[in-house]
Fold each of these.
Amino acid sequence: MNKVIIAIDGQASTGKSTQAKKIAVNLDFDYRDSGAYYRAITYYLLNNNINYDLIVSQEIFDQINIEQTYNEGFFRIYLNDIDITDRIRGHRVSLNVSNYAKKPEIRKFVYDQLRKSAELNSLVVDGRDIGTVVFPNANFKFFLIAEPRIRAERRHKQINDKSVNVDVIEKEIKLRDKIDSTREIAPLRKADDAYKIDVSNLTIEEVYKKMLKKVKSD
Ligand code: DC
């Protein structure tokens, strides 16, 4: 049977990974978090003092083995068999990942990983350039957007530290939108054939039903 690819791209904090996981469970597909690959590579390179302004050689990539799993509601990512799931969300990686994610050789490495996964199983993949660059022939493409203020309020609710102001989060989100959509390599852009959903006034469940309906009706 042919493998099916569902690409979920969109702005930061629009619930892409939440939706991707729910859909993967419903359809019994594998799930891949493309951002987590960029984070894992960033973690490795930072730990090995390889600055983002250096070219990453094939010899270095040969030392990096990344595995992702999603089982019973738990996503895990392993770097050379070590579970680094929590470490890739830390401040140091978050601060540096966009610089490493710009590098063509790192993007190629991630694309190869994702495409190899797609040879084995049907996949739901979330990211920024999945429907435009990584899988332009994906069977289904979604593009999620939402008002910056609403995304900031949702993120504020998730953060434990309530001293962080919603206005500050909103500013950061706007800046990230700008960086993601104006960067030269693989910018955030809706694929012409992607189904756009503005999730501003929709619950997680409402977005999920819309997406599933689209997948099941085609
Ligand atoms: O989605 P995230 O915050 O975990 O993504 C981490 C970084 O990787 C972020 O700087 C955007 C970048 N990224 C990318 O360039 N392309 C993707 N397909 C996914 C993430």
Amino acid sequence: MTFQLIDGKATAATIKAEIKQQVEALVADGKRRPHLVAILVGHDGGSETYVKNKVLACEACGFQSTLIRYEEDVTEGELLEKVAELNHRDDVDGFIVQLPLPKHIDEQRINEAIAWQKDVDGFTPINVGRMSLGLPSFVSATPKGILTLLQRYDIPTSGQKVVILGRSNIVGKPMAQLMMQKQWGDSTVVVCHSHSKQLREECLSADIIIAAIGRPDFLTADMVRPGATVIDVGTTRVPDATRKTGFRLNGDVKFDEVAPKCSYITPVPGGVGPMTICMLMQNTLEAYIMREV
Ligand code: GUN
């Protein structure tokens, strides 16, 4: 079977160019540029890379961006103070606090302090709740990016069976909501996790499998029915001495054996990853338009 690769990198580049065009039109009209602020605590390698790529994406979209850095020993109080300041600043449209945070800081407490109007990650209880009710909201970037890829590749979702592997707050749960709701996926959704029985059978009955469990090569060919669409959200760093960085990103899907069975599949890297950052840009533009236009 010949499969089609879903090119997230190219799709993200197209969308960023569309955003840039919109921004330049606004600027030509005398408006200010959208402004995204990122807070980064400590020096975690993955977080450093994500935030660097977010800043680069801002440049590509014609946004203003600000990176606020703290050392690992920042207190919860200091972070809460910064969040309160950003909530009120007129020149800031949206901001994110890069996760994970050091153990001495309560992530949920920080999250709940973010004003939902500036929560372009879509992680606050108000945005999660509004999204679940089908109300206008900021939808978290990875699920939104996956839905956008399915739409841009004309992959039908209405009435299709979608199996989601993983139930995280960032991907699995919001993904299930989006795929279930009539105005988005309109699909039949099953969410599987580490305690699910009949996991292989569930996967075999899926038209679309979304793998987001963070276990490299978890989804194997015997779990995929011919013609299925497979979306790989995994980005585990595995040691690789042949790389300059000393690691490579490994997806949750055993690509080489699964791909030949699929009609569509995302690669790692270059699939879901670039779309996530691109959707953060889209959310930032939405936040800006909500405040400014
Ligand atoms: N850490 C991993 N993914 C994300 C994300 O989408 N947003 C933030 N803020 N932190 C993350």
Amino acid sequence: MCGIVGYCGPQSAVTPLIQALRRLEYRGYDSAGIALGVRGKLFVEKRAGKLANLENALDIELPVVHSGIGHTRWATHGGPTDRNAHPHVDNDGKLAVIHNGIIENYSQLRLTMQERGHTFSSDTDTESVAYLLSDLRKEHNGDLVVAMREAVKILRGSFTLVAIHADNPDVIVGVRRNSPLVVGLGEGENFLASDVAAFINHTKRAIELGQDEVVMITPTTVEITDLDGAVIAPREYEISWDASAAQKGGFAHFMLKEIFEQPKAVADTLIGRLSDNKQIVLDELSMSVQEIRALKKITVIACGTAYHAGMIAKYAIEKWSKIPVDVEIASEFRYRDPIITPETLVIAISQSGETMDTLMAVRHAKAAGARVLTICNTHSSTIPRESDAVLYTHAGPEIAVASTKALLTQMIAVYLIALHLAQVNGALTDEQIEGLYIELLALPGKIEMILETVEPLRALTRSFADKNTVLFLGRNIGYPVALEGALKLKELAYIHAEGFAGGELKHGPIALIEEGTPVIAILPVADEHALDQKMLSNIQEVKARGACVIVIAQDGVHVEGAQHIIRIPVVSALLQPVLATVPLQVFAYEMALARGNDVDQPRNLAKSVTVE
Ligand code: AGP
């Protein structure tokens, strides 16, 4: 969740550092700071609050230096104050370090550092690392790289660390364990950052760093070594995004831009997924026919919105491939001793690929012998790198904290996996597969149709701006959609919102209905179970008790009892979530606007939760 940047090169370091931190603001933060590499003694400035506070503090005569590190902090240990902000500096005032993650053995480390005479000025876990690095550097002839290697051998937890020392200001050293760190390769200048958005306007050449790899950059060199000092060949790659993709593209907010990018994101994720002979192309799965046919169970693990994609996976995989599926909240999964066998396929779903709860669940599953397939939107992030296989969605950079286009592409990914499994184990014929794939191909156009008619919904939403409770009802595969609608509203409008299975209404939640309570119901597709009729009964029940009912219903479907109907194009039942979710995203977006909230960086939230 914290933003990490380092720069060395011909520019005056403050400019690229502040620019980079601004591009990382979307990660969510509550303080910021920089340290400049000045020979002999560092220049350090840090402030609680937004980046503007730091920029105001820097509006002074600054030393012209060409290297430095910068940080945006999302508070974990210690509140968001000036003194808890990073960088943290050793007692000589010469070594500065910034950190993303949690040092799990920091309290013991703090005691050890105090015993060595270091005086503390903050409540953070990171300050202990500044003193540890300072001592280790002195023990190793002033070599900051060796000091970093030795420090990592002592530290436990998840961290990205980047440090600089005033005696060698053109050298910046970094290391990563479970948290992201990438190198940006410029012309006569180099960058370190939590993610490529920080330097993409300077260079699209990047190097991914692996677990416990230590990197040293100067303006002209990049050296990567393991903890024993062995040199590691850089794994360079070209960033596929361009700088504009990480900007708002004319939309008021990243979230609105990303809602409107959904047709393209879905289309891109579907490209090339059906061969000429009607075979679903999922080479990434890298599982033989025998392995797929031997599967006894699939367990999906994820958090938040990605978990709702996992719930949809259950319906699709069981319906099409007849393989049993469990869906688990990642933070619960490993603590209940799940039954995992070699015939278990674990599917992790994560937009960022850095969610610590999901990463730890993946590790648990792998240690128990499961094969792990990850659905992810962020290339070379940690979770895909620790999985056996990865299916990348092609949503492009998702900057807004509230996930939208990533979710729809995750749905597409789970549909493709379900079809592939059904094709391999013979549960569906090639013709059935082709028919369903063609229906998937039609989804981008149908999403476009919804987006072209959102203005009335946006106006309607504003009429609910003063409401503090909104309920969402869904049945069958509409139930995860109801949960997602509620989550979006919680995280954006900061109001009490809950999603329920329609059949649960009379088992308690109906007591919540008061005069004027908004209830949004996702009307199922008519089927042999008459689920649509059951939902229409639910609508009557809540309306009879004063609810203001908004129904999401397909074109042409007769709806009784609703005050408002939001129409979506016709689609088969299992694919309806891709379309029904879009109006709920718009509803939450508009409620946030109407309530004056920060749409792209909602309070208390971060784009990627990289701590447990
Ligand atoms: C979604 O709107 C939320 N921001 C959050 O629930 C998110 O989906 C969750 O933290 C999982 O993130 P991931 O997909 O990057 O793992």
